[in-house]
Amino acid sequence: MCRFVLIEEVIMQVILQVDFPYQGPWGEEMTQAMDALSTSINQEPGFIWKIWTENKETQKAGGIYLFASVSDAQAYLKKHSARLKSFGVPEVRGEIFAINQTLSQQNQALFLAK
């Protein structure tokens, strides 16, 4: 008698935090300049959402992303880092974080609810 065991892979959403040196444009000009990039990010495997970040005073930009899995976030970080370096960005910092769903929802992150 053969027995098959189905192993369910647990996929956990993760946050990807990215920042890098950036000299502008800022605000509305950045919105216009990055429109095509913003649209393309929506097509990335496992991508759920992004919050775009910019700090004119420290000359940094980046984003906070939600991905469906660690592997999706890692793949995007690798691709995005290479793209930014091809634009002349000397250093791209990226870090992946697990999400504590319960504590996040207690602090109004209801969009994480399943």
Automatic annotation (TrEMBL):
The protein's name: Monooxygenase
Pfam families: ydhR (PF08803)
NCBIfam families, per the entry: PRK11118.1
Lineage top rank: taxon: Bacteria
Gene3D superfamilies: 3.30.70.100
